[in-house]
Design brief:
By secondary structure, this protein is an alpha+beta fold. It has a single domain, classed as Trna Endonuclease, Chain: A, domain 1, CATH 3.40.1350. The protein contains 4 helices and 6 strands, in the order αβββαββαβα. Helix 3 packs across helix 4. The longest helix has 20 residues, at about 5-25. It is globular.
Length: about 150
């Protein structure tokens, strides 16, 4: 039997590696996640001054369930943590022997692409692959730098 905490840490390390490989951004585990429920799994690790990193990242790695979709409780968890931190919720999830999937709310995706930020439906989510996630992340960072 696989230890859930070990599997979670391995998943977090995989996501950290992807952010560094694709964007040159170093992330670290947020150790506060073990003391308080209102924290994501990963946060930016900037040693060269401040940087506006607006994302609250939650990582889930689970055994196959026969489904490709995220569990609603996962989204609620990252949404609650992001709200408490004043950040954008980002859910990374992966089932065994499947690719990573990433979930963001359409408001943030729409804003990044020059659209409106007024989608009221809290369940209006976009599930994407890694390449799309990194594209949207770059666009969000760019849009925030301009505003």
């Amino acid at each position: 039997m696989v230890n859930a905490q070990t599997k979670g840490k391995r998943g977090e390390n995989q996501v950290k590696t992807q952010y560094f490989d694709h964007m040159g951004i170093r992330l670290k585990r947020d150790l506060e996640q073990y003391r308080s429920s209102d924290h994501g799994d990963l946060l930016a690790d900037f040693k060269d001054g401040e940087f506006d990193w607006p994302f609250c990242i939650e990582v889930k790695a689970y055994a196959n369930t026969g489904s490709d979709t995220h569990r609603p409780a996962w989204w609620q968890q990252v949404r609650k943590a992001a709200k408490a931190q004043g950040q954008i919720p980002v859910l990374w999830y992966k089932y065994d022997r499947r690719d990573w999937r990433i979930v963001m709310h359409m408001n943030h995706v729409s804003f990044a692409l020059g659209g409106s930020f007024d989608h009221q439906d809290e369940n209006l989510l976009l599930t994407m692959d890694m390449d799309t996630c990194f594209y949207v992340t770059r666009e969000i960072l760019s849009a925030r730098a301009k505003s």
